[in-house]
Amino acid sequence: MFGRTYFHDTMRKYVILFGTLFNDVWINREDSTGNVKDVIKVPLTYGPRDKHLARIQGLSNDYDPLSQEFAMVVPRMGFEITGFNYAPERKLPTIQKYTIEDVDENNQKRYYQYNPVPYDLTFSLACFVKNSVDGTRIVEQILPYFTPEWTTTVQLIAEPDITLDVPLVLNSVGLDEVYEGSYEDRRTQIWNLEFTMKCMLFGPVYNQRIIKLANTQIFDATLYADIDDSFGQIDPASKIIIQPGLLANNQPTTYTSLNVLQANAVATITDGEVTDIAITDSGLGYKEATITISGGGGSNATATATIVGDSISKIDITNAGTGYTSTPTVTISAPDLESLAADQINDDNNYGIAETIQAIYPE
């Protein structure tokens, strides 16, 4: 649509989510002495309520008795989508974005996606049974979880990684008893449960080029009546060159000194060896981290760090060392995702080398 084809499969995921919630319902049937006679898993399928009812009653093809399909066995459950409604009360700022931190293979573009649009997706769940006991046992396994909603966390889109909480609200519960015709006709009870799933629908993924350099030239407007006449006729009065902060590979980053945090940890020694390293601050802005263990009278203790997200989640001891008489100092390297201006990067601060542009760019 509008010249762009995309498909995130979120509608299918919502249907799968709903079905998964009710796909593991079991009931017991007892004999007259109270002993369990049968353990039955209640099957669940997607389809209209009337279609399930017709199959249960074994009616099709204009009631021709010679061409009837086999009737479905109850108990069983069926569900279907019954409607979509826009949910303005859950609307998010339209221009806010989800941004993928990684750039493309040429380090030229960053991908993003605008906020999703809220819709309420209504489902109808029908429980078909032939006696009241089976029906109440099915419903009793469902109702306690909805107060009146049950929330599930679902990964809706892989790139960018978007995982949202999806509430499912139980709106109503009703009971119908289908018992028409003669005494020999089959009786069916139907428990109808109506739900509203609070969904989000996402638009396409866009990409934008990364601004790596901004070059602004300022001209003296008093020399000409029209400032446009000064272009190409005089040298710039001044210039401003802004280069974003860079990582060690000279690529721009959104991390600054305001949103990184140094990680810290403390060691525990037993019988002269380092036996544990506890993290006191997980830090922010890490892609890799180096652990150094020093002091304490011993030597040779080493450890490695595990990074989850951009924080240190675990420190594993790879060599316990020997000869420690007091607690050694654990030093964790600085966050390597912190950005620096190009002219502040040199060989000594572990951020690589960046060339400072001094002339007007481009020439």
Features:
single chain; 363 residues; mainly beta; 6-stranded mixed beta sheet; 3-stranded antiparallel beta sheet; 19 strands; flat; disordered C terminus
Could you explain the architecture of this structure?
With 363 residues, the chain is mainly beta. Among the domains are: 10-86 and 115-200, 2-Layer Sandwich (STM4215-like); 264-338. 9% of the residues lie in helices and 40% in strands. It contains three helices and 19 strands. A six-stranded mixed beta sheet has the order 3-4-7-10-9-8. The chain has a three-stranded antiparallel beta sheet with strand order 5-6-11, with no helix packed on it. A hairpin with a 5-residue loop joins strand 1 (26-30) and strand 2 (36-41). The longest helix has 12 residues, at 10-21. The chain is flat and about 95 Å long.
Instruction: Specify the CATH class of the domain at 10-86 and 115-200.
Output: Alpha Beta
Can you count the helices?
A: 3
- Note the run of SSEs as H and E: HEEEHEEEEHEEEEEEEEEEEE
Number of beta-strand segments: 19
Per CATH, the architecture of the domain at 10-86 and 115-200 is 2-Layer Sandwich
Task: Write the CATH fold name of the domain at 10-86 and 115-200.
Answer: STM4215-like
Q: Kindly report the spatial arrangement of strands forming the biggest sheet.
A: 3-4-7-10-9-8
In CATH terms, the superfamily of the domain at 10-86 and 115-200 is Myoviridae tail sheath stabiliser
| Distance from first to last alpha carbon | 42 Å
Q: What's the rounded overall pLDDT mean?
A: 80
Unreliable stretches covering 5 or more consecutive residues: 347-363
Q: How would you sum up the global shape? A: flat
